[in-house]
């Protein structure tokens, strides 16, 4: 019986075991955050209702609609960094110094995604790796932002226990996340390389084939991770198409300002599958965007080699395609063996 179990585990792709461990870890985190922070949410709701009733009793000239209008004005002002306290207002977020900090934040968060891709040395030939995210319960957005590079800032633990748990949860979850993303990235790139090699053998036109594979990968990814989500967000969130596209890029590029956050409007009722769809979209969308960045690097590198060959008299390095397509699992395991350090004598 023990031998049979070992055989089954050896035949089971490692990515399935890692995926199961990953999803289990995220779901456990979601449950813990829900238990630690959910009670505080009910308490905050009770305090809010009491404050609302007290305001309506104190200011009898203010009815329900008037109170909501005042609250909306205060909410809109706070979103742009303005305050209505006293007889003066602040200058808002967009002063010169804060604007410069904002610009630095944008480019450094984009750089984080690029460095993450470079860290795993993603290339279509040979295939290596890159990055994606998890499946979450409807109330589990804390686990999503703990793992990812994109933190919206609209949701965070407020209890001491929740904050301490968040530190340790992220401490172990981030390495697990990178391992899973590394493995998923390898599989996706191996599949893309096999398609490219197959077409090269059929057409005997290597350059055109690779350009075609890059183009199809870009167009299909743009449709899957930008166009389709844009339509979904326009319908369920009520955003314009421009706002939806903006949100898609800000999220997948890991910037995450928090000015637009899907599945967070308290005035809307979202279906149960919406959060799961959101998490899946971010997971694989982050992977695709990292792949796109490395496709661009791959194209620039090939152009550099072409110009060196043409004007520098250097011969291009020979690239050998695989004789016959391998399975993604075998190629991933082979790369792992190659990347292992030599055993000291």
UniProtKB/TrEMBL annotation:
GO function term, MF aspect, one: potassium ion leak channel activity
Region (Disordered): 310-345
Transmembrane segments: 12-34, 161-181, 211-232, 244-262, 274-293
Pfam families: Ion_trans_2 (PF07885)
Keyword Membrane: yes
UniProt keyword annotations, A-Z: Ion channel, Ion transport, Membrane, Potassium, Transmembrane, Transmembrane helix, Transport
Mode of membrane association: Multi-pass membrane protein
Residue span(s) of domain Potassium channel: 150-188, 216-300
Claim: Zinc is one of the keywords in the record: no
InterPro entries linked: 2pore_dom_K_chnl, K_chnl_dom
GO cellular component term of the entry, any: plasma membrane
GO biological process entries: stabilization of membrane potential
Main location: membrane
Subcellular location: Membrane
Family: Belongs to the two pore domain potassium channel (TC 1.A.1.8) family.
Name under which the protein is recorded: Potassium channel domain-containing protein
Species for this entry: Pleuronectes platessa
């Amino acid at each position: 019986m023990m031998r049979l179990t070992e055989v089954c585990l050896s035949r089971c792709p490692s990515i399935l075991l890692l995926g199961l461990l990953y999803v289990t870890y995220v779901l456990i985190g979601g449950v813990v955050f829900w238990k630690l922070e959910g009670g505080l949410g009910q308490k905050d709701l009770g305090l809010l209702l009491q404050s609302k009733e007290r305001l309506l009793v104190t200011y009898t000239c203010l009815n329900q609609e008037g109170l909501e209008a005042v609250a909306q004005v205060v909410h809109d002002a706070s979103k742009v960094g303005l305050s209505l306290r006293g007889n003066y207002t602040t200058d808002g977020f967009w002063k010169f110094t804060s604007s410069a900090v904002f610009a630095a934040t944008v480019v450094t968060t984009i750089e984080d995604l690029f460095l993450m891709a470079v860290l795993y040395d993603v290339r279509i030939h040979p295939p290596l790796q890159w990055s994606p995210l998890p499946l979450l319960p409807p109330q589990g957005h804390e686990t999503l932002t703990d793992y990812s590079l994109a933190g919206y800032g609209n949701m965070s633990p407020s209890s001491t226990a929740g904050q301490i748990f968040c530190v340790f949860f992220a401490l172990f979850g981030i390495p697990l996340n990178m391992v899973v993303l590394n493995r998923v990235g390898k599989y996706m790139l191996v599949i893309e390389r096999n398609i490219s090699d197959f077409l090269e053998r059929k057409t005997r036109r290597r350059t055109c084939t690779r350009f075609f594979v890059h183009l199809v990968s870009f167009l299909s990814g743009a449709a899957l991770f930008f166009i389709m989500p844009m339509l979904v967000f326009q319908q369920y969130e009520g955003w314009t198409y421009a706002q939806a596209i903006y949100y898609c890029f800000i999220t997948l590029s890991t910037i995450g300002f928090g000015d637009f956050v899907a599945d967070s409007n308290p005035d809307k009722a979202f279906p149960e599958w919406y959060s799961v769809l959101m998490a899946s979209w971010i997971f694989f969308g982050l992977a695709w965007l990292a792949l796109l960045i490395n496709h661009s690097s791959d194209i620039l590198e090939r152009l550099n080699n072409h110009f060196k060959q043409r004007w520098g008299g250097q011969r291009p390095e020979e690239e050998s395609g695989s004789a016959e397509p391998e399975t993604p699992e075998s190629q991933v395991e082979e790369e792992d063996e190659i990347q292992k350090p030599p055993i000291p004598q």
